Amino acid sequence: MNKISPSLQALKRIAQSVPTPFHLYDRGALIRRAQGLNQAFAWNPAYREYFAVKATPNPYLLEILKAQGCGVDCASLTELMLARAVGFQGEQIMFSSNETPAEEFRLARELGAIVNLDDITHIDFLRENGGIPRRICLRYNPGGDVTIANRVMGRPGEAKFGMTREQIFESVKRLSALGAREFGLHAFLVSNTTDPAYYPSMARMLMELALDIHRQLGAKVFMVNLSGGIGIPYRPQDTPVDIAQVGRGVEEQYRALIAGTPLHPMRVVTELGRYMTGPVGCLVATAIHRKDTHKHYIGLDASACDLMRPAMYGAYHHITIPGKEDWPLDHCYDVVGSLCENNDKFAVDRMLPRVDIGDLVVIHDAGAHGRSMGYNYNGKLRCAEVLLNEDGSFQVIRRAETPADYFATLDYPGLPR
Ligand SMILES: *Cc1c(COP(=O)(O)O)cnc(C)c1O
Q1: How far does the centroid of ligand 1 lie from the alpha carbon of residue 51, in Å?
Q2: Would you state the pLDDT for residue 112?
Q3: Distant-in-sequence, close-in-space partners of 131: CB < 8 Å, separation ≥ 6
Q4: Helix or strand or coil: residue 110?
Q5: Ligand 1 binding pocket includes 78 (Cβ within 6 Å)
Q6: If 0-12 CB within 10 Å is exposed, 13-18 middle and 19+ buried, where does residue 237 land?
Q7: Protein residue whose Cα sits closest to atom 13 of ligand 1
């Protein structure tokens, strides 16, 4: 399996001191992922992965990625604060925001981050809030549909992000007049794709745009930013993306288009979130109820507040029962949480081994857009995060919320503060 599968023994040991539910991350697996990605793009000496902080905004994980040479991609004030606290600075920070408040641009500029502008109207806004830097990135939206091998993969024409081609050219002119000298180009067209042709085809699009900008405006394009979007195999039968093949595919485009032009050497960078942390994390819960009515239900101590993707997107997350990996999958269950919402289901009609009350339940591939999308509906408290080290030791890297956390923004007698 292309996902972490902590043993029953390891989970029991953790659960003795950290009550379920909790998110668990595997340190060694995260490091191997970062190394594999860096290896795939090693042909580009200035390559950097800017980890998309929103996927897993925990400073202890950001520290691990920093030690592997990664930067961070931020899109909000608190994400920038996290980056600063972990010691990221200057061009180790990408700021790919949209509909950006003034104070966020100001902090991004203060930190020396590469600002990735989502719209042409943000030029004047940035000029007044932090100022125009020498190097700046622009987010491109080609519109229409994205097709790879005749399959529609995404609909950028329907996406709120980025600028049209004409606006990109206008922005380069306007920014040049305001003192910018080097430009990056960014696009994010498809989410969660395991098609190895995605990055190479987007690299081609951005590199061709870079050459057009250079030819027509004489402007220097120093970077193409391939953003995020590389997916993971959520289902056991899905094929994982071959990241080395992706890296070679982008390299071929670079050799064909950029090498031997005045734009060489040009930086290629990525802002992956899901690909980096998705498979190295899981949500660990306990089966606390069994219910047999018109269907068979397993009730967990976790809810959509801990992992929203199934409720929000109908997303598949693989589920295993540690210790029962070899049992026959001969029971059909809906695996559900405790929210007063009928979409609070981690799985519907899922074949599993018999689940008994007290069984630990592992919901896989929850390491990205999992805990971070958590919320407090029904007054549910968000769960802890635990880091499992290579030597089997573990560390709580975020405690679970308490009622006092939940009530902290209320000043009302009788409520814990
Ligand atoms: C969400 C996001 C990413 C990361 O996306 P993944 O699908 O998790 O790889 C990267 N860049 C930007 C601008 C984003 O909004």
Answers
A1: 9
A2: 98
A3: 109
A4: helix
A5: no
A6: exposed
A7: 96
pLDDT, mean of residues 173-202: 96
3-state secondary structure labels for all residues of 206-237: HHHHHHHHHHHHCCEEEEEECCCCECCCCCCC
Tokens, residue 37: 């990605």
Q: What is the mean pLDDT of residues 4-16?
A: 95
Neighbours of 140 (CB within 10 A): 26
Sign of CA dihedral 313, 203, 68, 110: negative
Distance 318 CA to ligand 1 centre (A): 22
Burial degree of 395 (CB within 10 A; 0-12, 13-18, 19+): exposed
pTM: 0.97
Q: Which two tokens stand for residue 326?
A: 């070899």
Distance CA 370, CA 302 (A): 12
Q: What is the pLDDT of residues 338-389, one digit of tens each?
A: 999 999 999 999 999 999 999 999 999 999 999 999 999 999 999 999 999 9
**Is 154 near ligand 1, meaning CB less than 6 Å away?**
no
**Ligand 1 close to Cβ of residue 272 (< 6 A):** yes
CA 372 to ligand 1 centroid distance, Å: 13
| Ligand 1, atom nearest to 54 Cα | 1
Max Cα separation, the chain?
71
Across the chain, mean pLDDT equals 97
Q: Is 229 in the pocket of ligand 1 (CB under 6 A)?
A: yes
